[in-house]
Design goal:
Two copies of one chain form a homodimer.
Chain A lengths: L18 E6 L11 E6 L4 E6 L7 H12 L4 E8 L5 H19 L6 E8 L6 H13 L6 H7 L8 E9 L2 E9 L14 E5 L2 E2 L1 H13 L5 E2 L9 E6 L6 E2 L7 H21 L7 E9 L2 H12 L2 H8 L5 H9 L17 E4 L2 E5 L2 E2 L5 H8 L3 E7 L5 E8 L3 H9 L3
Parallel strand pairs in A: 4-5, 8-11, 9-12, 10-18, 13-17
Antiparallel strand pairs in A: 1-2, 2-4, 3-11, 6-7, 7-8, 13-18, 14-15, 14-17, 15-16
Amino acid sequence: MPVNYATPTPDRIHAVAGVRLGVAEAGIRKANRRDLTLIELAAGSTVAGVFTQNRFCAAPVQVCRAHLATGDIRALVINTGIANAGTGEPGLAAANATCAAAARLMDLRAEQVLPFSTGVIMEPLPVDAIRAGLPIAQKALHADGWYDAAHAIMTTDTVAKVASRRIVIGGKSVTVTGISKGAGMIKPNMATMLGFVATDAAVSQPMLERLVKEAADASFNCVTVDGDTSTNDSFILIASGRGEARFDAVTAPGWNEFKAAVIEVARELAQAIVRDGEGATKFIEIAVAGSRTLEEAKAVGYAIAHSPLVKTAFFASDPNLGRILGAIGNAAQLHPALADLDVAKLRLWLGDVLVAENGGRAASYREEDGARVMKPAEIVVRIDLGRGSHAAKVWTCDFSYDYVKINADYRS
Amino acid sequence: MPVNYATPTPDRIHAVAGVRLGVAEAGIRKANRRDLTLIELAAGSTVAGVFTQNRFCAAPVQVCRAHLATGDIRALVINTGIANAGTGEPGLAAANATCAAAARLMDLRAEQVLPFSTGVIMEPLPVDAIRAGLPIAQKALHADGWYDAAHAIMTTDTVAKVASRRIVIGGKSVTVTGISKGAGMIKPNMATMLGFVATDAAVSQPMLERLVKEAADASFNCVTVDGDTSTNDSFILIASGRGEARFDAVTAPGWNEFKAAVIEVARELAQAIVRDGEGATKFIEIAVAGSRTLEEAKAVGYAIAHSPLVKTAFFASDPNLGRILGAIGNAAQLHPALADLDVAKLRLWLGDVLVAENGGRAASYREEDGARVMKPAEIVVRIDLGRGSHAAKVWTCDFSYDYVKINADYRS
């Protein structure tokens, strides 16, 4: 069960002019489940993406990078069940064959198709099943296909993840709608295990490439479930240009409002992944301020967010301050610039309760206050490092029996 | 239950001339358990230590560093129950008061006493209980006290950890005996959560300082349970000089043999901590070769050893190659020099089975072979990065339900 997240009902998901989605049961790894999604983009759409930094990046990621470089993307094919990662040359051939099959069907060139895979690593991708499923997905193409597509890209997810906004900027209507998936192997380095956001605004290619990085840095690149960066992480931003608004430069009127809407959708999708993190019972925001750089703040945030001792204490609703301070003290292992961190200057809050200062427990701290703020399903951990003016947030979840259960059972 | 480790029986533990140990039930956090250990060193002993790199290093670690700098150490006081970490100035005063109490009792200066604490973080150290317990521990001082001391320094450990060797070097008898403790918050950066090794050989101070670093790097600094470097890690090497052998320079006859014996004892103690890792059901050696530097090999080893996904797969005896390759692909996040790692050149073995090469699954690999080598309680993972001639080993354990149980329940 996700922590305070439910899939929006279809009536709350806005279609994006110029984007249609269709799904199929292709039997890629298991029968009788939707495992293939086709997304069709109108001519003239711009598309930008960011991808995993894992050296074992999946074959589809490599193909996506190559095809995005050629421009003029018109279709996306997403399969679950098999990740097509750690598959060597045959894996690349399979990803290319997927693109070729979709291109043939839709009268495109293979380079106009982006392939995405998610599921088990190191197993061969059954291209024949995808070839057979694509015409079914094509027949199902529909502007209101977001809800179904969000379900069809799930793997260990327990809920489908959709976020949607319709706003008016300078008198012009702008729609931003996106879907994402992911629950484990989540510590995106550039983007997460499949996130797709589309807008009907027209956005020039350079502006879209800039925006996809900014949006990823403010959303998917701030969440972690288990610290394991996936081999397949991909975040794609699509601008169909079929709506009323147009953005060609940062000076374009309304650009900041538009950017904020895109980031809001991306952040909602990224946080939904953490809320649905494998075995999660708590959603935790770690807000680090007072650092000398953004990187320092992020390193402290991740040092806390990745500590199994801290995560199990959250699971137990235990205000175990020592483990949090211990994790902060280790952040220099992630980021050497923190080697001169002065712990006497640091302040730590759980919720609204100041728990540590002057290198030890805050004089005003009472254990019952700590216990009170650790109880809810959502907890904010706030740290002021007292050495600068930068800040960052990291979102994570706790570490429960079910995390072990899910990952010891998966594949079996 | 530890993985293939049992405490040696007292008859297999060699006393070290010049070193006596005594324990007491001081009621530091709980009643009726041995929680205070006193170690007395003969005049003329040399002592060297390495300590945690955690910025929140405990008060006793700070006092140890200061006292070691003055030389002429004659006693060690070790308490469990309370770690005296994250305790600010009052914590430092408590550690100094402990030294003063032991010094008064033993007719020493406070600077001749090293304090060590392990247990709950951020709670005040009850110095009165220690003061009351010290005379009892002093009365119990005995050359054969190693077995009892190994028990008295335990916290979440399920077995006491002792290693002992008596060898003859150049016709002279040399004894090396040590104890350690630790099961969680284990990823020593300089040394582990309390390891003490003593020899009766005479070793000059510069040689001992060199040796303690080498021994830590070859033992405690190669193990990890959960990736959380403790606030209290301390590894102490004592040379009483009351035996037959004497080492004043690396050119001293038998130095290499002696060094090997010390490393062997330290490694046995370090591996015992992993075998007794919280919730551990498997002991895993990760041997990385073919790296450009030692640091590259260690980064790959730790990337695997810290991945919750890999550790839960080990718990399930699941030959989940994808998770291991995924973890290797992420090692550049720990060590940026690995950003140009060519995964096509990498080879991976589980036990004696080649499982991955050419960027994918090895052609010869059969799932039943993988399942076979994952079944035993001890598993060797071998990686050849194919880019250099350096190598390193990391020892770790799996991640089980009991890890969550132990850490969600601890403190409660």
